[in-house]
Amino acid sequence: MLGEYRIVGRRASEIAASVERGVSSGGLEPGQLLPPMRELAAVLGVNPNTVAAAYRTLRERGVIETAGRRGSRVRPRPATTARGSLRIDAPAGVRDVGQGNPDPALLPPLGEALAAAARRDAEEPGLYGRPAVDGDFARLARAALDADGVPDGPVAVASGSLDAVERVLNVHLRPGDAVAVEDPGWGALLDLVSALGLKPVPVAVDDDGPLPDAVERALRDAGARALVVTDRAQNPTGAALGRARAAELRRLLARHPGVLLIEDDHGHGFVDVPLHPLAGVTDHWVMVRSVAKAYGPDLRVAALTGDPVTIDRVQGRQRLGPGWVSRLLQRAVVHLWETGAVDRGAVAAAYAERRDTLVAALARRGVEAHGRSGMNVWVPVADETGAVARLLHAGWAVAPGARFRMAAGPGVRLTVSGLPLADLEPLADAVAAAVGPVEARSHG
Q: Is the Cβ–Cβ distance between 235 and 100 less than 8 Å?
C-alpha cells in the first residue's frame, strides 16, 4: 500500500511525524492511501488508539483526510504544496500577464499618506492600550459599507483579505469541517482552507457568481459549514454577483441559517459594477474589504464587518497574537480615503477598457473568455499545459488554471492591468493560436 516508505514510531507524535516526513520527502504521494489504523498498529506493535491519535493530529494539520470506510489518504494537495508555486517565471523578453498585480500607474503615491500618519502619531502616539481600530478608519469604512447596503455591524481590521478570512474560519470551524469555495477560485484561499485542516468543497461559478444549485449541494449534501463568496472581480474569472443571482442566493442561505457566510469584496475601490451583498441572512456573516488592489498590495490592511459575535471573537483572538494592525497603516489609509487619492471611476474604466477589449478580441477569434469585472480574464482551454507552453514560446507568461481550480475544467488566467491597449490584439492572436476555439460552458 505504501510502496517502499515505512511509517515508524511508538507514540502518536512519532507516528504523525513519520507520515509528515514521508509527505515532505515524496515517499508518500498526494492521494496515497494510508494503512487502516488497526493494521498499522499491528505492524508497529502499538495500541490502535495511538494510531488513531496520530491520524487525528495529521487531519488537524491538513496533511491527510479521512473518508469513513474508504480510509485515510494523503491530501491531494497538501498544505505544504502552495498553489502559488504553480506559476510561470517569465524569462527575459517574455511579457508577464500571470502575476495578478494591479497597474502601478493607477496606484496612488503613498508618501504623503504615510507622512500624514506619522504626523498624527506624533500628536497621538500609538501606544499599548489604545483601541485596535482607529476611530476615523472605522467611521469611514462603516460609511462606505452603509452606502453599499451592507448590514450594520462593528468594524475590525486585519492584515489583508486572507488574514481576515483565516481569522473568521478559525473562530467558528474545527479541523475536518467542510467549506464551500468557488471553483475556479482564489488559489491562496484554497491552500488556506486545506492548511487549516478544513475540507474544501468546490462550487461552480459563472459570470454572475456561484451557481445556486452548486451552493445547495455543497451545503445540503456535502455538509459545508461555511461559504466563501467573492462579490466582485472574482479571481480568476472576473465574475460579479448580479442582482438576480444575489437574491436567489439570499433565499437559499435563509434555509441554512447556521452556515457561516464570508464575503470578499476586494474589488471595492477599482470596479465599476454595483455590490449586491448577501450578508445578514445567516446567523454568522462577515464582509471583508482589502485596500490592496486599489491602493497598493503592500498596504496590508483590510476592513471587515459582521455579526457582533464573530467580530468579537476575531478581535479577542487577535489581541492574543499581533494585538492589532498598525494604526500608522490605518491612518495612512484614512488619509487616502479622505483626500480621494484614487479616482475609482477612472481606475475602474481603465481596467474595464483593457479587459473588455481583450475579451472582445478573443471572441472575434472564436475563443471563449470571461471577465465581467476586475483586472483578470479567464480563458477555458482543452489542454492547459500545452496552452501555457505555447504561449510562453510566443512570448507571453500566463497563470496556469491549476492554481485556481479543483473540479473545474482547465483554463488560463490573463491579467490585463499592466498592458497598454496596443498589446491586446497581439495577445489575443497568441492566445487564439495557443488554445483554439473552446465550446462555451460555465466555469465549473
A: yes
The identity of residue 98, as a single letter, is G
Is 216 exposed, middle or buried (CB count within 10 Å of its CB: 0-12, 13-18, 19+)? Answer: middle
- At 318, list the grid cell: 487577535
Phi, psi of 414 (to 5 degrees): -115, 125
Neighbour-count burial of 252, counting CB atoms closer than 10 A to its CB (0-12 exposed, 13-18 middle, 19+ buried): buried
Q: Residue 369 has which C-alpha cell?
A: 473568455
**Closest by CA position to 301, among listed 408, 177, 157:** 157
> 72-74 and 376-380 as β-strands: parallel, antiparallel, unpaired?
unpaired
Q: Residue 250 contacts by C-beta under 8 Å, 6 or more apart in sequence?
A: 278, 281
Q: What is the pTM of this model?
A: 0.83
- Tell whether the model's pLDDT for residue 180 goes beyond 90: yes
List 412's β-bridge partners, or say none. Answer: 379, 400
Q: Which residue has the cell 482543452?
A: 382
**Cell numbers standing for residue 178:** 467542510
412: part of which helix (H) or strand (E)? strand 411-415
Helix, strand, coil percentages for the chain (3-state, nearest 5): 45, 15, 45
H or E stretch at 378: strand 376-380
- Encode pLDDT of 98-123 as tens digits: 988 999 999 999 999 999 999 999 99
Contact between residue 278 and residue 229 where contact means Cβ atoms under 8 Å apart: yes
**Residue-level pLDDT at 441:** 47
Q: pLDDT tens-digit profile of 342-361?
A: 999 999 999 999 999 999 99
Q: What angle do CA 324, 325, 326 make, to 5 degrees?
A: 110
Give phi and psi for 138, each to the nearest 5.
-65, -40
Of the candidates 181, 171, 186, 195, the residue with the CA atom closest to the CA atom of residue 226: 181
